[in-house]
Design a protein that fits this description.
Rossmann fold, four-stranded parallel β-sheet, about 230 residues, 2 domains
Amino acid sequence: MKTIGIIGGMGPLATADLYKKITVNTAADCDQEQIHIVIDSNTAIPDRTRNIIADGADPVPEMTKSIQRLTQCGADFLIMPCNTAHFFYDRLCAVSPVPILNMLNATVDYIKETFGPGKTVGLLATDGTIQSGIYDTYLKNAGMNVVKPVQNQAKVMEFIYDGIKKNNLDIGIDGLMAAAEEMQAMGAEIFILGCTELSAATDYYHFDERFVDPLLVLSKKSIVEAGARVR
């Protein structure tokens, strides 16, 4: 089997969640049948949202260091548990000696295959992901519409930064659901949990089948790419 390299630390909980999802969803009867995974939880990577919407530091140099460390450790391909980081996907591919799976592309493919074409999709994500429009391109190319919260976007950011990133699970999901209801009024039928902190939150809060978890999609795609079977 191939070795997976995880460009982690964006954030650490999301990194741990991706590793867990790969392990839990791999068809294996013993430790030796699990996939070899190398993780670089590089918490020195600057905040991606601050770089995209403000004057924050460029995260690519630190992410490049992670790529170098992971490939030196034998990773055959790489994955990133951060939606916003995919804004820099092309730059990272240009410096990586091994392939980098694209979580956003895989998520949109999953939505089209599972729910059918022509759907309106609501995006729950950071301001950086929202304003960069990175999901918009993939969704529009797949023939789907995308809507985003306006009145309740601040509540999404509060859930991500004051809730999950601070391990504050008492924050609850009322604000997140208000954003989803706002987008449902715009025609959204499906919702992307477009921040890996939201993916990590699926272990603690209940989300129904309309809420698509990109980390789960990526974990299953990675298992197949590595040459193992999905449980």
